[in-house]
Predict the structure of Cytochrome P450.
Amino acid sequence: MMLPTNNLVFLLSPVGTFELIGGVIALVSIAAIASWSYNVFFHPLSNYPGPRLAAATRLWYAWHCANGTLPFAIHELHLRYGDVVRVAPDELSYIHPDGWNEIYGHRPGKSEIPKDPSFYSSALSSPEGVFRAPRDRHGYIRRQMSHGFSEKSMREQEDTIRHYADLMISYLSTQANGPKENVVDFTRWYNYFTFDVMGQLVFGESFNCLLSSDFHPWVSIIFDSIRYNVFVRCTQFWPWLSPVIRRFIPKSFQRRKLEQQALSREKANYRKTIHDGRNDLVANLLKPDSGVTDPEYQSTVQTLIVAGSETTASLLCGVTFHLLNNPEILEKAVKEARSEFDSADKISFVSVNKLHYLLACLNEALRVYPPVADGFPRNTGSNVELINGQPVPQNTAIRMTHWATYRSPRNFVRPNEYLPERWLGNTPGFENDHKNALQPFHVGPRNCIGRNLAYMEMRLLLALVLWNFDLQLCPASKDWDKQRVYNLWEKPELKVKVLPRKL
């Protein structure tokens, strides 16, 4: 039916246009208010504690996510509301130690709680790799990888890891004894070490960061993309935003991202050409009868490189900063290493097991500076789950937030202090600590397969550094730990004065 002429003229007039726009705005506003009111007062999660803004809309969550403050904001909510808090209309955060097994653990007779699709977006990682694969394929790929991460395999990789540790020690020695200012940015050099190690163990060749004293282009793009990935993650809450955000991404960055993907395929394919019988982290994936598809292999090796490099480097930075910020603790760690070994040549994967205080320093660094400060949400999907003694309705994202869990006075005495003694058995004053709250490598069928490798790298390199050098934190890095989190820490320079050891 045609509109009457006078109505058509009215709509096309300025007054009619403004009224039409006003009507649309009014309808959208009414719909938004209705949605927010429902989320706050009538939603199945309305009985869970939390700020009303977070309950009403994802804006609170997205704001803190985009500003790199989400783990800290969630921590403040837990301090106010307790063990469980509503951080979004459809998401709950937990800090009680039991939450680890209830959310992420093995569930005999039941399937695992699936990963939250809005977090594990296809824009951030490939669905074929071990990180995002469905349960059956994840289990299969992981079994194929397990031999490469076994204790026997780790011992076989010791010479490789020691080679790159010695390269870093050699550089530090040159700086310590050189005529120029002996200040080293440990943030860069720990990353050089871990990326070179993982490049060798996964791609069959290092990135040569230690030798070139610079990041390989493949590595550089990872750091450049950290914030972008978080912005993409936020657009999952409002799909119409995605094309808008992408318009603001520099074409140069998009080009570099494509170059990195091409280089990844090139390096992954190069590893396929090596047939020297090496028993590295991906050898089993490349066997003709492995049953692992090429897309699964390509995605998995990229995940291994990033997960095995950046997180280990972050922890090494964190423990170094906290040691240098606490001279008495540093003195104990140095004394232990130097009294146990009369030669650096005697420091090995096996012998570092004697350094109990060093291990306590690493564990305490994992608590106060976890490499992953945020959390990895799961989603109840079509099920109602019992978490923390309360039923959680369908289609709810649930998570343990590392930072909030480890900094909670409900779990640890003096939670904001760096106190390695809490990990030394029955040290007085820490009897009420919930040690099982610390799960930086996660629990359950999807826990971190590289835990043993990470500990071996960190214990070996840190022991060598403390045995060989005297270290002093530069004033410019006194607030190094004041950082933002974009899934990974946005780490500034960690400037350390490196001196030859006195005794």
About this structure: The radius of gyration is 26 Å. The chain has a mean pLDDT of 90. Residues 11 and 144 are 67 Å apart (CA to CA). The first helix runs from residue 5 to 12.
